[in-house]
DNA sequence: GGGCTGAGTGTGAGCGCTCACAGTCGTTCC
DNA sequence: GGAACGACTGTGAGCGCTCACACTCAGCCC
């Protein structure tokens, strides 16, 4: 029982300590650790026992140095506080663990391409094997395109056209479906509270909304632009409340819809009696709004998972061949009680 | 311009490539990289130019191997989808970046001590220098206590009594303050929708609520226990709605308060006219509930930041001396319009 | 019997960096 | 004039691991 051969004694045990204790060479220990088939069962047992006895843990830096692999992926996220990014991150992490990868995160405060660049650089410096970017702004998209191909990158939740592989929700079809739902209810047209113009998702939802209106031959009122927050929905809602032609509003996300609901409630306007309201995202709280919100469900967790898998594909199969894949996940409208046929308001 | 000395050619440049190009030794390059004071300005410039020209990036694994430092901290989180954990994670990441540390995350699905153990082990295997745990369940607390001192650990947002250093919100004083607010308004007593019994925060909030009632000589009705979700608040709210003695309810978080609000609304009970409702957390949406919610603000981001700093202290100053520190952050009641003097309901 | 196989194991080099140490200058002092 | 010093730079070893290769020894064939 010398400090050399037992745990607790001196410094942290290394592979040769295990080898000595098990009476084999360091290479055999390495083989056991890496599940090499060419190790006799009895030897393997002996090595495993020694490992346990010493509480030996392989040094990941040494391994990374020689294999040139870290089994770590990086995630660049815009605001991990929002429900969407938080859920995607969660999905990514779960999937990564399943594939025995680590996840290292960097969040960026602002949406300019410099920040995204820096974040990716930082991750690159830490030797991640690939990067997932949750940064659905048009500007970030540009940054990614410029990034250079020495590090596999996948955009999640949205992303630049082409250039970079992406896993995204089909915002357009979701927006289209919920707008059509409102139209089918008998509304002459549907107003829209849009997300920030520099978000790809916001743009796609506007496009889907416009397309549904065009399909129905309805005129498209000028959309009002918010910033995803309940506050902006509230402020915009105050304006909408004074317009007696409004009978249905599609909000680009549930939080803005919540603010709108609040504004309408303060103005004494009934939902859905006077005005129907629909959102987008289906956050867990949406069914407990007053009234429960009709919205479009997107499975953020699934998005994250798919994104990670796409990234792993690229990491393991080497550089791109052909044009980058683009996975679209279909969102699903969820009808609750915030939408109904137009009622007491005078038609627009 | 051979492949040896320029980027783009063959393999990734290493330190000696830079040294050769700059006409110095590898050690001088290392000195420049590590801001050693004893390098002549002209030499430094020459090295930096060479680094830029080759697009050289130091190999972090090699550095970690020899310095035995990774500048990485791990975060173990229970459910990164919830607002609280997501915000703390954000705060941690921001702070870590400020101190030039990386953040690696592992989230656990279930709250048993095995999962927490495994997560910490995983992180340990990746050679993080310390771990922050966002897992405010009593069971996790036990796991941490058992963890052994070879890796610095800090609990964030809550944590076991003693044993492990922690940064937490003073749940008890927050709950006490908001309960007193309700009592001061003239309510005879205050009902409570509690969080899950195995969450430390939930327990502390119950304690604060009880203390405030006791201070006022009010009787404490049996608290109802939910699971933090709006759904559970709704279901419990349905029960509360049938009890005509209820005039004020303090919910253990804002989401449950939202569900309660929904249930009361369906039951035709006015808030705050018939029943006053208060929450805890002050999520960004709370001021847009119907009606805007009186609640207790806790600054999750700050919590994360403080947690990281505490961890860094322990990493840099070596093993514990004395008993683990415990930082309490004071939460702040925010009065909005969901609370008022008792009104039309018959007194209990 | 010699040569082949393949299973099981050991040897030595080297990944890219930092650390400890050892220079080599030019300056200053007595 | 030489010792002493500080500023700057170079040399060699070695961190803990994996990789390529070499080796040993059964078992088996012709």
Short description:
2 copies of one chain form a homodimer. With 348 residues, chain A is an alpha/beta fold.
CATH class category name of the largest domain in chain A? Alpha Beta
Number of domains of chain A: 3
Name the assembly state: homodimer
- Radius of gyration of chain A equals 27 Å
CATH architecture of the largest domain in chain A: 3-Layer(aba) Sandwich
Number of strands of chain A: 12
Shape of chain A: elongated
Distance between the termini of chain A: 90 Å
Write a structural description:
- The structure is a homodimer of 348-residue chains.
- With 348 residues, chain A is α/β, with parallel strands linked by helices.
- Chain A folds into 3 domains: 3-67, lambda repressor-like DNA-binding domains (434 Repressor (Amino-terminal Domain), Orthogonal Bundle), CATH 1.10.260.40; 72-169 and 300-330, Rossmann fold, CATH 3.40.50; 171-298, Response regulator (Rossmann fold, 3-Layer(aba) Sandwich).
- Helices cover 43% and strands 14% of the residues of chain A.
- Chain A has 12 helices and 12 strands.
- Chain A has helices at 15-22, 26-33, 41-54, 60-67, 83-98, 113-125, 138-145, 171-184, 200-215, 230-241, 254-266, 300-317, and strands at residues 72-77, 102-107, 130-134, 153-156, 166-169, 191-194, 224-225, 248-251, 276-278, 295-297, 326-329, 332-334.
- Chain A has a 6-stranded parallel sheet with strand order 2-1-3-4-5-11, sandwiched between helices.
- In chain A, β1 (72-77), α5 and β2 (102-107) form a beta-alpha-beta unit.
- In chain A, α6 packs across α7 (138-145), α8 runs parallel beside α9 and α10 crosses α11.
- The longest helix of chain A is centred in the last third of the chain and has 18 residues, at 300-317.
- Chain A starts with 14 loop residues before the first helix and ends in a 14-residue tail after the last strand.
- Mean pLDDT of chain A is 89; it is low at 1-9.
- Chains A and B meet through α4, α5, β2, α6 and α10 of A and α4, α5, β2, α6 and α10 of B.
- β2 of chain A pairs antiparallel with β2 of chain B, so a sheet runs across the interface.
- Chain A binds a DNA duplex (30 and 30 nucleotides) through α2 and α4.
């Amino acid at each position: 029982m010398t400090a050399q051969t037992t745990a607790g004694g001196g410094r942290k045990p290394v592979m040769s300590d295990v080898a000595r204790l098990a009476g084999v060479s360091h290479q055999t220990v390495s083989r056991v650790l890496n599940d090499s088939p060419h190790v006799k069962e009895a030897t393997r047992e002996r090595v495993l026992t020694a490992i346990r006895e010493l509480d030996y843990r392989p040094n990941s830096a040494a391994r990374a140095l020689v294999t040139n692999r870290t089994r770590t992926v990086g995630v660049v996220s815009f605001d991990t506080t929002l429900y969407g990014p938080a859920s995607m991150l969660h999905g990514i992490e779960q999937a990564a663990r399943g594939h025995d990868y680590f996840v290292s995160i960097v969040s960026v405060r602002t949406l300019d391409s410099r920040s995204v660049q820096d974040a990716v650089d930082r991750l690159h410096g830490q030797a991640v094997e690939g990067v997932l970017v949750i940064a659905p702004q048009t500007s970030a998209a540009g940054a990614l395109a410029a990034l250079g191909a020495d590090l596999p990158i996948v955009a999640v939740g949205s992303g630049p056209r082409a250039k970079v592989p992406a896993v995204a929700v089909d915002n357009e079809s979701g927006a289209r479906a919920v707008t059509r739902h409102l139209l089918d209810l008998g509304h002459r047209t549907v107003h829209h509270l849009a997300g920030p113009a520099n978000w790809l998702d916001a743009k796609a939802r506007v496009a889907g909304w416009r397309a549904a209106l065009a399909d129905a031959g309805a005129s498209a009122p000028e959309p009002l632009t918010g910033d995803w927050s309940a506050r902006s929905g509230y402020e915009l809602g105050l304006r909408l409340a004074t317009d007696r032609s409004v009978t249905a509003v599609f909000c680009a996300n549930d939080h803005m819809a919540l603010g709108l609901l609040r504004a309408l409630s303060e103005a004494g306007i009934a939902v859905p009696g006077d005005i129907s309201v629909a959102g987008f995202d289906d956050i867990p709280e949406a069914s407990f709004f007053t009234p429960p919100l009709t919205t479009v469900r997107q499975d953020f967790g699934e998005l994250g998972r798919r994104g990670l898998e796409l990234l792993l594909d690229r990491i393991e199969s080497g550089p791109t061949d052909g044009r980058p894949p683009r996975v679209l996940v279909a969102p699903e409208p969820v009808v609750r009680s915030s939408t109904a046929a137009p009622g007491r308001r005078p038609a627009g």
